[in-house]
UniProtKB/TrEMBL annotation:
Disordered: annotated span: 109-153, 170-191
InterPro entries registered for this protein in UniProt: GspB_C
Taxonomic lineage from the root: Bacteria, Pseudomonadati, Pseudomonadota, Gammaproteobacteria, Vibrionales
The protein's name: General secretion pathway protein GspB
Compositionally skewed regions (Basic and acidic residues) per UniProt: 136-146
Ranges of residues in domain Type II secretion system protein GspB C-terminal: 205-264
Skewed-composition ranges (Polar residues): 116-133
GO terms under cellular component: type II protein secretion system complex
A Pfam family assignment: T2SSB
Amino acid sequence: MSNVLNALKASEQRNKQYGVMSVSPNFEPAQADTRQGTSNWRLCVLAAVMPCVVGLGFAGYQSYQQQKEVALALSVAQKRVVEVPNEFSVHDSPRFEPLMSTFVEPTGLAGRATDENTPTTSESPVVSNQRTLTVEPKKDLVKPEPDELSQLDLTQLSPELARRVQSVMNQSGQANGSSDNPRGGKSQQNTIKLNHHSSDFIGQLPAMNFQTHVYSSQANKRWVKINDVEYMEGDWIDSRVQLVKIEPQSSIVEFESQRLEIPALYDWQG
């Protein structure tokens, strides 16, 4: 098969060579005219096609630019401002009702202090902040006779303790005398409540800050702390004020022949 193809190619080449050699010189101008006509035709076609190509290219370029601008506009997030109308309205003013009282009666000291005639089963002190009020239950004790107290030897005690024991002995003697004659002496003297008549003693009665109040059924165990000093019944607070008696919820002092009842843990400014 390859031999046949080679033979055909060789025959075709010989025919081409023979045709070129057999062409006469008179035939060349006609062939040149034909080639020139073909070139002119091509130029005409190219001249007619070029405006269309240029127009299509320009239209494609404009379309590309428009699509680019649209894509750019869509890619940028636009802020949307929404205006909401602000409506003005008038409302009624609130109604204020009378306020309810929230005051609660204190039940710390007055409620816990045991009355002298009321028995109690608790012997623990009642403490209120930095002030102390202690009330011990009343017990029936056998009091020593005055003669036995007078026979006590106070020389072996310290001066402070001897002074307190002597004041207790004096107080016991006064109590015995008042029990024998209940209508005589100062036992029936009117007692003035200082917290109700404070204006009458401002500037006269010295300042007294009752910091601790301890009451017991035994008189020798009752004491109060006034102005950082401890006092028992019968002690003199100063030259004009004497502590006469310690009650469960108050103390009684004598000032210029007047007996004043001062509540427990009371701060008298003077």
